[in-house]
Amino acid sequence: MPSTSDDYDCSIAELKLLMELRGAEALEKINSAYNGVEGLCHKLKTDPINGLPNDTKELQNRRTAFGKNEIPPAPSKSFWRLAWEALQDITLIILLVAALVSLGLSFYKPPAEHASNDSSESEAGWIEGVAILVAVLVVVLFDVSVVFWKLNAPTTRQTLTSNSLFFLPGLQSKIETEHKFSVIRNGEPHDIVVNELVVGDIARVKYGDLLPADGILIQSNDLKIDESSLTGESDLIRKSEEFDPVLLSGTHAMEGSGRFLVTAVGLNSQTGIIMSLLGAAKEKKEEKPREETTTLTNGNGAHGANGLTNGIEKTGDIAAASDDGEEVGRMTKSVLQTKLSNLALQIGYIGSVVAAATVLILIIRHCISNYAIDGKSFQLEMDIRTLGHTKSRL
């Protein structure tokens, strides 16, 4: 029978609530509810000194009960969905409209045409419209093919470990195989790949380490953590089992060392929760993002906890407002990409205004020249032909 968190004296939800607390509030919760970190170790059936037994079955049971230390990526968009999104560009829309207008005018033939008209020019009028359509098709296919290949390359479809909020294609496989962390099992230190960490492990942290999971300090030696990646707090946070024992995944150890009990991994860690709310991870079906958002905003501890919860609340609203991750796609653009997109949009608007003004001026000129000066009567067929010539000049 598969192991569940009910086989232990702590549930996933209970550990999540614990990891949302900070400072004295977290310490009070640990002492009152678990009788200290040793009591928490007892509930998780682990030895605070010797760690877990290095038994494959026991480790697998813990992965089944509390989850793996992996964050599966959200499913990528289909080729046709990417193509549809690419066609939403204002410049391409203008080109498509111009191509359709050009094709419509090229195939329209008034009932009475003068023999002096150049038949070869009229027969080849459709080439302009088709050329525009082909150009748009080539641009869209090239752009979509590059994006689709990046999203579905083997190195980008592998699962994410919870040691970073974002990743670069092609580097994830290297991170997964080379990023190792020190744990104590059977009383002996072992360096294991971070995605092999399980809840209940006794891990050792030292200067320069990137924490791969959430945990509670058991022992520390002047340990200081950089939590700016999660809370935005630029100052180093001093951690101690006596006043602030909570360690969060995705943060860096900048000074000191220590040992901690792993309490949350993968999607259940603080980094995993944030990535789920951002839409950058594939959530489990039984999880409810809106409920998680409500829960996460309950922590009011020290050391930037309010900044973390406020940020999660905002990102939760974004994720709820966009099931497809469209808003997330805009958010993850770099500053340069955002500026270039805005510039392209402005150029498109300016070009549209100039083109519309040019057409309007030519129509007004035609009306004044033919109807006001020459005194000609209005003839729809002749005006459409004139508009076609105007289109060719443009």
From TrEMBL:
Residues 33-107 form the Cation-transporting P-type ATPase N-terminal domain. Residues 284-308 are annotated as: Disordered. It is an enzyme of class 7 (translocase). The keyword Calcium applies. Keywords: ATP-binding, Calcium, Calcium transport, Ion transport, Magnesium, Membrane, Metal-binding, Nucleotide-binding, Translocase, Transmembrane, Transmembrane helix, Transport. One of its GO terms (biological process) is regulation of cytosolic calcium ion concentration. This is P-type Ca(2+) transporter. It is found in: Endomembrane system. It comes from Caenorhabditis latens. Pfam families: Cation_ATPase_N, E1-E2_ATPase. Residues 284-293 have a biased composition (Basic and acidic residues). Its EC number is 7.2.2.10. InterPro entries: ATPase_P-typ_cation-transptr_N (IPR004014), ATPase_P-typ_TM_dom_sf (IPR023298), ATPase_P-typ_transduc_dom_A_sf (IPR008250), ATPase_P-type_domA (IPR059000). Its main location: membrane. One of its GO terms (molecular function) is P-type calcium transporter activity.
